[in-house]
Design brief:
Layout: H1 9-22, H2 27-33, H3 39-59
Helix pairs in contact: 1-3
């Protein structure tokens, strides 16, 4: 999306962080990394995901 100029570099960087957290869906990774994703963490990450998605939609001329 960044290479196509649909999102800014900062949105790309945040997207990379989101991808890393997405991997915690696997209980073993969550356990071995000693990370615990709480409900409020998930809600915050979901809001960021929706914001990036809206940015992409606007960039390609779609209504969010």
């Amino acid at each position: 999306a960044h290479e196509l100029n649909w999102i800014t570099k900062s949105a790309k960087d945040v997207g990379n962080v989101l991808r890393d957290f997405r991997n915690y869906i696997h209980p073993h990774k969550e356990y071995t990394d000693g990370v615990s994703i709480l409900d409020e963490d998930a809600r915050m990450l979901w809001e960021v995901t929706k914001s990036i998605t809206r940015h992409v939609l606007v960039s390609v001329g779609k209504k969010p």
